[in-house]
Design brief:
Blueprint (H helix, E strand, L loop, with lengths): L1 E9 L2 E7 L9 H8 L9 E6 L10 E6 L5 E2 L3 H10 L7 E6 L2 E8 L2 E7 L22 E2 L2 E2 L2 E4 L3 E6 L8 H9 L9 E9 L2 E8 L3 E2 L4 H13 L6 E6 L2 E7 L5 E6 L1 E9 L6
Parallel strand pairs: 2-3, 4-6, 12-13, 14-16
Antiparallel strand pairs: 1-2, 1-19, 3-4, 4-5, 6-7, 7-8, 8-18, 9-10, 11-12, 13-14, 14-15, 16-17, 17-18
Length: about 280
């Protein structure tokens, strides 16, 4: 039976989105990795599966499951949240409550610009999680000159390194070393950032389970919060990734608001038997 999908992206961070709310599609690590493969599959940074929400979970409208190219399941994805908010905007009158493994978030559409209320950041070492107690505002660790990162969980766990030139860091090599360090028992997303102005940050991200991507919404949120905690910026910043800018606000209620575009690239179908579970 043909399975419909929609190819979407947020600032070049691209997704295969499958609406399985009516017709369920079993998604395994094997199937997700095959769909995400850019040579033999459809190709994407993450496979997104929409399922009926557990209405006990903050009265969400939809459950969003997020699968990385290695088949692992992520807790949250800011760019995918904007894509789902755009996809369901007409159905939900512009406002969609999305259940994720990292918590329930709200996406609000205004044309192609989507704002997502990402919830509150968590800073406790156990919430990251770390293998043992450390000061998450300046972890006393380093990897080949990258040192004293901020650790924060914004639905996904991140470490953020502030450096003079984010573009000069060999993140393709250092990213996987840091991601899989024993300090991070659930692995970690790795951000290298440069503060370029009073309210501006340049950012590159190595995503846990996905590698280098053109944009990472939770990475932008984590980096903005890290800069604000260190008093490097104000409470509203523009974070520019290789794919483009996102606006991040940390409001007086301790909630993070992320705003940026989402786009549908194309729609299609695939045969379930071509990607065995």
């Amino acid at each position: 039976m043909p399975i419909p999908f929609r190819k979407m992206h947020g600032l070049g961070n691209d997704f295969v989105v499958i609406d399985a709310r009516v017709d369920a599609l079993p998604m395994t690590a094997r199937r997700a990795a095959a769909l995400a493969d850019r040579t033999t599959g459809i190709g994407c940074d993450q496979v997104i599966v929409l399922e009926p929400a557990d209405h006990a979970a903050d009265h969400a409208d939809v459950r969003m499951r997020i699968f990385n190219p290695d088949g692992s399941e992520a807790d949250a994805c800011g760019n995918a949240s904007r894509a789902v908010g755009l996809l369901l905007a007409d159905e939900r009158c512009g406002v969609t409550r999305i259940e994720t493994r990292g918590g329930t978030i709200t996406a609000q559409a205004d044309g192609a610009m989507i704002s997502v209320a990402m919830g509150r950041p968590r800073f406790d070492w156990q919430a990251i999680p770390l293998a043992y107690a450390l000061d998450t505002l300046a972890l006393p660790v380093a990897w080949e000159g990258l040192g004293e990162p901020v650790a924060v969980n914004v639905g996904n766990p991140h470490v953020v390194f502030f450096v003079p030139d984010a573009a000069a860091v060999d993140l393709a090599r250092l990213g996987p070393l840091i991601e899989t360090d024993p300090l991070f028992p659930a692995r970690i997303n790795v951000n290298v950032a440069t503060v370029t102005g009073p309210d501006a940050i340049a950012l590159r991200v190595w995503e846990r389970g996905a590698g280098l991507t053109r944009a990472c919404g939770t990475g932008a949120c984590a980096t903005a919060i890290a800069a604000m905690r260190r008093r490097l910026t104000g409470r509203r910043v523009t974070v520019t990734l290789p794919g483009g800018p996102l606006t991040i606000v940390w409001d007086d209620d301790d909630s993070i608001l992320m705003t940026g575009p989402a786009t549908t690239s194309f729609v299609g179908t695939f045969d379930e038997s071509d990607y065995p579970a």
